[in-house]
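User: I've been going back and forth on whether these two constructs are worth ordering. Before I decide, could you fold them both?

Assistant: Sure. I'll take them in the order you sent them. The first construct and its structure tokens:
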Amino acid sequence: MRAIVASVPGRLRVRHEALRSPALLQELAAQAGQYQAVTQVEPKLQAASLVVYYDAAQWTQAQSHQHIGALLGGLLPLAPPPEGAMQQRRRMRAPMGQTRRQQANRWAKRTMLGSLALSMLLAAQGAKRWHTLTGILFLHALGMHLWVHRRHLLK
């Protein structure tokens, strides 16, 4: 089932947008905890996920997928996604199929390239004040670029 996003022997993670509902998440956690092989269940509302720890001596990975998948199949189709989730995703799209994040990054890269070229030209001509100002513009654009890619910097 596609809701099971990660699995190693003894542990699996379920993630689904419908699990943003506290009642559904608690119900799923309670039902998963009733299996004899399940040792611990960690519901995580902020992540819309549930981590299920089980005894690997009692269940294989395939059995865990089968049991938890059957449980999910009974609960998740009945729960609609949160109200307005699709409309919010559509609003985040910018013109021409780009997200605002992609547009900001494109602006930042073009500004960095232009301000760097202009800054070097001004430095060669001896215009220290304008060289400094274009350098500051470059640093602001670099900051925007790094902000857009902050999640991938230290991977």
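The second construct, handled the same way:
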Amino acid sequence: MPRPKSYDRQEAIEKACIAFWQHGFQALGVRGLEQQTGINQFAIRSEFGGKEGLFLEALHYYSKAAITHEMAPMKTGAIPEIIAFFDGLVTPGSMTSSPYGCLMVNTGVENARIKSPVLADVTAQYWAALNDHFVRALENEQKLLKNQAIFDVEDLATGLVSAVMGIHVQNRQQQDETAGRALVNLICNFLDNLKAPT
């Protein structure tokens, strides 16, 4: 008869997400994971398939939360919703602001050394989702402008994704969730000038 679990699976994933976010994948050992998640090595192996399996679970948790809560308003919104998203990147208490930057940005940078196809795929899917949300919001803005917009939707969306990455890197480098505020202000002022008149 199997022993009952002494931990909550979802809670362990959430704690692992924070631990990997702070320390990265390679720098965080299994013992560190044990301490920060409350689950032992055996459970990490049997429940998640090892450290990499737990890391992938954490990445999926992080991605789903960001897409469901922070990106979602852009599906039906327009430039004001993009501006709100950017503002959240440097607003203390926001789900997307952190002195650790962004788990997906950090993973992408670290994976330049690791070269894991699985990690590359997960991060690529995340940035594609963000790009798609930007495209949707910009297309909605174009409709408000009666298709007389002076911007190229695809190029602007791609540029905005790069800006998000840069803001997170600056936040992490300075260990200050408001460090990227100057770039956010620049982007938001630019976008504000593209909005349809109210």
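Notes on the second construct follow. The chain has a mean pLDDT of 93. The two ends are 66 Å apart (CA to CA).
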